[in-house]
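Justification of computing resources. Each target in the renewal requires a structure prediction run like the one illustrated here; the chain below, 182 residues long, is used simply to show the kind of job we budget for.
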Amino acid sequence: MANSKKMDYVLLGLLSHEPMTGYEMKKRLDTTLRFFWGGSYGSIYPTLNQLEMEGKVTKKDTSSNGREKISYSITENGKETLKEWLKKPVEKDELRYETLLKLFFGNENGFEGAKEHIERFEVKCRNELVVLNMFEENLMQYLENDTHKYYYLTVRFGIKTYEMYLEWCKEAKEQIKEWEKK
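Resulting C-alpha cells:
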C-alpha cells in the first residue's frame, strides 16, 4: 500500500483520540510522530476530504472571531477501518537516511566530507534524544492511561534508536581516523 494510503490510517489514528483540525494534525505529525512518520498539508487535506466522502470522518465548522476553522471527528465506520488496519501485519518497515546515502557514495567526497556528514548527523541525534527523553519523562506520569502506554513504547524505541545512532557516530569517526593514519 502506498504511503499516501497510509495517511488515511495516520489521520484516523489521530482522530481516534480527539477531534482535530487539519492544522492540529499537521502539528502532531511535525512533533510527536515526526520520529517515525511524516506528512504535508498537501497530503492531509485531500486525505481528509476522501475520508469524509467515505463516511470515515465528519467535519464541523468551529470558526470563531472571523477565523475559519474546520474540526474533524472519526466516525464509527472510521474506527472500524482503523481497527481492521491495526490487525493486519506490517507491510514494510524502512530506514531512509540521506546521511547514509551520502556516506555510501562517500568515495567521491573523501574522509573530510564523510566526517562532516557524521558530525551533523550526531548533532541532530543528540537534539532528538533530548526531545525524546523529555517525552519519556512526561509520559511516565500518565502510564495509568492505556493510550499513553503505547506512546511510551514508541518513545522508548526512539530513545534506544538514537542512542545506537550516537554509538555508531562515535565508532564511524574513530574508524575514519584509523583510515586517515594509513
